[in-house]
C-alpha cells in the first residue's frame, strides 16, 4: 500500500486530473483525504515501476508543487493515536451515542465493568439505566457540561459528562448527539485532587481577580481566615468555592492537613466511616486495628465539606454534635475523640430556603453560618474573564511545555459574551481543550469550540431601552457575523452557511470591518 501527500494549489480540477492519472495507470484508490492545499492518497500499487510512472505524471500536473511518500494518512494517524490512547488511558472513559450505543472506550472502562469481548455494546442496563442516560443528555443540552453521582453494585461513582455536537461542534438545541463520560470512584477523585491541589494551592493575593466584587470578597475572606468559627461558602458550581477554602486554610494553618469530603458522593454508611472512622471489628469486614476518620486525620488543619446540602439528616445530627462539643465517637465505640479542626462547608443551594422546606437542619445552618462568603457567578464579574482566560492559557502552555499562546480579540469577545453556566471551571476546561486540539500559538473561536452565545432577557431589555428596532437588528446582525465568521472565514462560505448571496455577505463583512 502506497500513501502520498500532494502539495497543490487550491484550484478547480486538480483532484479530477489526479484521479484521471490513477485510472489511466490502473491504480486502485483505497483512500483520499483533503486539507487546505494538500491532497492525501492511499493507493493499492505493488509494482514500483507503475508507481514511479504515476509519481512522474503527478509532478507534471499544473498546480502541484510536491509529491511525497508518507507512512499514514492524517485520518489513519488520528485513528491509531486514538486507539493507543484508549488502550493506555488509566481512567474509565467512554463515548456513547444518545441511544446508549458505545462508540469508543478505554480498556480500563471495559475492565471496570467486565464488558471485554462483548460485541455491539450498549451502556444502557449494563452500566447506566435509561433514565440516568436521558438525564445526562438533558443536562448536556441545557448546560453543556454535567456531573452525576451514581451507585453501581453498591459502589459510589462520579461521572463527568462532556457533549459531542453534530453541527461543527457548536451547541444548538437538541443537537447533542453523543457524549464522553468519565467514571471515577470518590476515593480516586479525592487522591488525585489532593495531589494536584497541593501543587497549585494559591494564597489570597495569588487568586486572579480584576473585578471589584471579587476583590472585596477576597479581602473579606482574608480578614476572617484566622478565626476559628466554621465558614460557609455559597456559590454556583465552578465558581471557585474550594479555591477560597484552600486559601483560607493556607492563611490560617499552612503546612497542616487540608482534607475534603463530597457529601453527595457517598452513602450514609460509607460517609460515616470516612468522616468519623471506626473501631476494631466495628462491623463485618472492618480492620481489627480500626481506622481513623477524616476528622482525626485533619486534626490541627481544615476539613472541607463540599455540597453540604446533600448531607443526610443522620449525618447532619452527628456533625452538629461535633461543632457544639468539639468531640466525636468512632463507629463502634463510646470513647470520645477531641480534635482541633477548622470546618469549612460549601453549597450551591439556598440553605435558608432548604431549612424553611425542612430539607436541612436549621440549627446546623446557624452553626455553619457564623462566617459566610458568597462567591459571585462568572457572568456577574465579566472583568475577570479575560485575566482568568489568560492565566489558564499561560498555565496550560507551561504544563504542556509549549510556547506562549494568545487569544485573538474575537475569541476574547466570545468569552465575554458567553453566559458561563459552569463558571470558572468551564472556562478552564474550554481553554485547556483548545490548547489540546491545536499547535497554533493564536487561539481563535474555532479552537474554543464554544456553545452558541446566549443573550439574557435582561440584556435584551436593557439594549431595547436605548436603541431603535433598526439599531437592535444591526447589533444582532453584527454579533452574529462576528461569531460565525471565524468558523466560515470567507464571504462565500459564510454566505452558504446563512443562505444569503455572496455579494450581500461581502458587503456586510466590509460594513462591520470583519473582512481581511
Automatic annotation (TrEMBL):
SUPFAM superfamilies associated with the record: ACT-like (SSF55021), Homeodomain-like (SSF46689), P-loop containing nucleoside triphosphate hydrolases (SSF52540)
ACT domain: residues covered: 3-72
Stored Pfam families: AAA_lid_14, HTH_50, Sigma54_activat
Key words of the record: Activator, Aromatic hydrocarbons catabolism, ATP-binding, Cytoplasm, DNA-binding, Nucleotide-binding, Repressor, Transcription, Transcription regulation
SMART domains from the UniProt entry: AAA
Sigma-54 factor interaction domain boundaries: 207-436
Main location group: cytoplasm
Molecular function terms, GO-annotated: ATP binding; DNA binding
GO cellular component: cytoplasm
Cellular compartments annotated: Cytoplasm
InterPro entries per UniProt: AAA+_ATPase, AAA_lid_NorR, ACT-like_dom_sf, ACT_dom, Homeodomain-like_sf, HTH_TyrR, P-loop_NTPase, Sigma_54_int
GO biological process per UniProt: regulation of DNA-templated transcription
Protein name: HTH-type transcriptional regulatory protein TyrR
Origin species: Pleionea mediterranea
